[in-house]
Amino acid sequence: MTRPDPLRLHASRHIDADPTSIALLLAGPGARELWPASTVAVEPPHRTPTGFVARFSWTGPDLPPASGVLRLTPAPGAHGTPSTSAELSVVVPEPPVAVTPAVLEQFLHALADAAHDRRQAA
What we know:
Layout: E1 7-15, H1 19-27, E2 39-42, E3 46-48, E4 51-60, E5 63-75, E6 83-92, H2 101-121
Antiparallel strand pairs: 1-6, 2-4, 3-4, 4-5, 5-6
């Protein structure tokens, strides 16, 4: 019996905050609450020549094991304000799954909200 091909999902979002602030948010203890799984392992984001990369993996009662990469790069913002392009790619080795592009977009939305809240508090 052949194994199904892994499912590759992608989502992206523009976030009105600079990549460094978002990377710090992801490195903090509250970042785990943003992810769409009950058990997530997140490597601290590391700097690249063009921004930051965070690698992660997750499991949960309703989700199979998955792994992914979140890339944060500077993007043009309105009126010269700092902004970020967030690109999330996930590989799920055993479809069918409960992970969908909508789940990834939910995470990016939660990340954008958290970045906005943090910026407002500063």
